[in-house]
Design a protein that fits this description.
750 residues; Na+/H+ antiporter like fold; four-stranded antiparallel sheet; 7% strand; globular
Length: 750
């Protein structure tokens, strides 16, 4: 018999241990991530009392796939538009939190005499809290729908983005072993270029393909396509020098803007859970008790630094960013842990060979301790605020801080001239960056792939000329917006009505835009043309003027931009959250959507029976069931598994409703699904039987016996479907389906 590979044996052992441990942690109401890490420790080489895996290298490969799926699903929950709409508050908070915690981590490392690289990477590990753990803690506590929770999750998303940037910086510093400003700046510019390019191209192309082949894409195909796209960008990111996690996150964020984002997220959730669990198990395998015992003092110091640092510096960062004091404390207390990104950065330092071997186990130990403490510290936020509320100066009270922000907003709006310049320059800058990125990518693609082909066909001279012409044609729909966008906007018309200085400045800005577009065309011509530079300049000016006034180029450019905008709004247009709920933002009442679980006890009950309004003090605004939507449902409207319920209530009512919905479900031991299974029996009809000579309608069979006749078998053994008006004859056999108790009663009666 063929021997099983070690990978299969190890995987079976890991999954059995992980399954058993996570059941225990689920029963103890602890995060599953912590259970996976403990399972990894039990299955790892540092636990002598249990069997250990034989092929750790293969498990490491599986864990890398787990990182890819974790970052991919994280990207699916990310939205660039949401970050832009949030304004500067979460950006300021995220930057301050990360800067403070990097400093704290570096100082702790300095206290113990660690090397510069150990201190730097330790600071990076402490800079970002665990998105997975906080999501889980909020769900378990019923806090995920509260306003402060959305601020925390926004900062976590930004931390993940900045974490990618931090990984690039750490990699550059690890390679050079010193701070090279120019080299670091080039790395950041390259990162921004690829990030923007992949997002623009992905949002434009992927939704188009999904719509075009929508009729052929079912759930199974959608999983294959989305995962394939994920790994495609993983390979591309790796080829250009970035981590696979970065490519997976970017593809997730691209797909997050499509109308199918929710379907994709649900479809791959099982894959994410499977590979993610293996990643955390592999992290647990690196826990070495000897190192933990040896470095118990640094572990304790780092743990206290994370908890106290986030409680104080994190809360202060949210407060400075403009969040109310109560919510600032809640936010800061929610971030008191490190998680998956710390493990990724630790793996990066270990793979580059720049960090000490003890860093990884130390960080894992700190993560376990802080994860365990997180739910309790989150619950401690409100009592802590109530204790210090009496000492809070009135100058920073919530109402006055809100009033100050409103006054500043009104002052800004009154400065119409400055506001007009601000909007004009911001628009010009945005369009220039976006379209110049696309032009640069097209030029690079043409020089690397199109130019050799043209030279092979037409020789160097004619091949260069053909490549130059084709490149200009390809970039023309993107050069035109750089030159003409915002030229006839309301801001320009408004500024042209002022004095000569503003009119001249506006005209200079418009001329600079034309020069920039012309420079791109001139660069292409001069790079490939053997002519004198003056002739190249003349040709480029003529081509630029043609691009501006060509009706064909204008239509193509407008069509591309409209398609991109429509794709970018796809998620909003298909969002389940009711648009009318936006009017209640910032007020005491809120509107939220909930999906009724499949094992709910509410199934088939009416709203009158459930009596939500009396018990939970909520109002049911709408019920969505498949393609059917019931607005303002009455008391006789029923709830079924899978329904989407839109409710209106305050924070307390929404939290109470969510807890009740989570609680009112059938557990495995309570479910009737297995206990009351159906059975089928065969009953012979005799001349003395009460069924003989009667039809199902005459007997009212279903109502009388709570069973169903599914077939009639004659004397020859032929089985036929039962007809309601057919009379039963002596000598026939009928096949009856029902629950066992009802079938037993039926046998006694007939």
């Amino acid at each position: 018999m063929e021997e099983l590979p070690h990978l299969i044996i190890d995987l079976a052992y890991i999954l059995i241990v992980a399954g058993g441990v996570t059941i225990i942690f689920k029963k103890l109401r602890q995060p599953l991530v912590l259970g996976y890490i403990v399972a990894g420790f039990l299955a790892g080489p540092h636990m002598p009392y249990t069997p250990s895996v034989m092929d750790a290298t293969s498990i490491s490969d599986w864990s890398q796939i787990g990182v890819i799926f974790l970052m991919f699903t994280l990207g699916l929950e990310f939205s660039f538009k949401r970050i832009i709409k949030m304004g500067l508050q979460p950006v300021i908070a995220a930057l301050m939190v990360m800067t403070c915690m990097i400093s704290v981590g570096s100082e702790v490392g300095w206290m113990f005499g660690w090397s510069d690289m150990d201190r730097l990477f330790l600071g990076g590990m402490l800079a970002m809290s665990s998105t997975t753990i906080i999501y889980k803690a909020f769900d378990d506590s019923g806090l995920r729908l509260q306003p402060f929770a959305s601020k925390v999750l926004s900062v976590l998303i930004l931390e993940d983005i900045l974490g990618i940037l931090l990984m690039v910086i750490l990699s550059a510093l690890a390679v050079s072993r010193k701070f090279e400003g120019v080299e670091l700046l080039n790395s950041l510019l390259q990162l921004g270029f690829f990030l923007l390019l992949w997002f623009l191209v992905g949002v434009f192309l992927i939704p188009l393909l999904l719509r075009k082949f929508k009729q052929y894409i079912n759930t199974e195909t959608l999983v294959i396509v989305s995962v394939g796209l994920c790994f495609l960008l993983v390979v591309i990111a790796s080829d250009v020098g970035y981590s696979p996690a970065f490519g997976a996150f970017m593809m997730g964020s691209i797909l997050a803007e499509t109308a199918d984002s929710e379907r994709i997220s649900k479809s791959i959730s099982s894959l994410k859970d499977f590979f993610g669990s293996i990643f955390f198990v592999s992290v647990g395998m690196l826990v070495d008790p000897h190192i933990i015992i040896e470095y118990w003092l640094p572990i304790l110091a780092i743990t206290l630094a994370v908890i106290l640092g986030q409680m104080t510096l994190g809360s202060l960062s949210f407060l400075i960013s403009g969040t109310q004091l109560k919510d600032s404390i809640r936010c800061g207390f929610s971030l008191v842990q490190i998680g998956e990104f710390a493990f990724i950065i630790a793996s990066l330092g270990e793979s580059l060979g720049v960090t000490s071997k003890f860093i990884y186990p130390v960080v894992v130990a700190v993560s376990i301790i802080t994860t365990f403490c997180t739910p309790y510290i989150i619950k401690f936020a409100d009592p802590f605020y109530k204790r210090i509320e009496k000492f809070i100066p009135k100058a920073i009270s919530d109402k006055k801080s809100n009033e100050l922000r409103r006054r500043r907003s009104r002052i800004v709006r009154k400065q119409t001239l400055g506001y007009a310049w601000k909007m004009l320059l911001r628009g010009v800058f945005m369009y220039t960056i976006v379209y110049m990125t696309l032009c640069t990518a097209i030029m690079g693609s043409c020089y690397t792939s199109l130019l050799p082909l043209c030279r092979r066909i037409g020789g160097n001279v004619y091949g260069n000329m053909a490549c130059a012409l084709l490149t200009v044609l390809l970039i023309s729909p993107f050069i035109r917006p750089v030159i003409v966008k915002k030229n006839h906007s309301e801001e320009v018309k408004f500024l042209l009505r002022f004095n000569k200085f503003h009119r001249m400045t506006v005209r200079i800005l418009l001329a600079l835009k034309f020069c920039l577009g012309n420079f791109v065309v001139y660069y292409i011509i001069s790079f490939l043309s053997p002519l004198w530079w003056l002739w190249n300049m003349l040709i480029s000016i003529l081509l630029t003027v043609w691009i501006v006034y060509s009706r064909r180029v204008k239509l193509i450019s407008i069509r591309i931009e409209r398609t991109f905008r429509r794709n970018l709004r796809g998620r909003e247009q298909n969002s389940r959250f009711p648009s009318y709920g936006r009017k209640l933002r910032g007020r005491d009442l809120q509107i939220s959507s909930f999906t009724v679980p499949g094992n709910t006890k509410w199934g088939g009950k009416t709203l009158m029976q459930l009596n939500f309004g009396h018990n939970e003090h909520i109002h049911i605004a709408a019920i969505t069931r498949g393609l059917q939507r019931i607005n303002i449902p009455g008391g006789n409207s029923k709830i079924y598994p899978g329904d989407i319920i839109e409710i209106v209530s305050d924070e307390e009512g929404i939290r109470s409703f969510q807890q009740k919905m989570t609680h009112d479900v059938y557990l495995a031991e309570e479910s009737n699904a297995l206990r009351n299974t159906l059975s089928i029996i065969q009953v012979s009809i005799t001349a003395m039987s009460p069924l003989c000579g009667k039809t199902l309608v005459d007997i009212d069979f279903r109502r009388r016996y709570n069973c169903m006749v599914v077939g009639i078998e004659d004397e020859k053994g032929n089985l036929q479907v039962t007809q309601a008006q057919r009379k039963f004859q002596a000598g026939e056999s009928i096949w009856i389906v029902g629950e066992e108790a009802d079938l037993a009663m039926l046998k006694m009666g007939i």
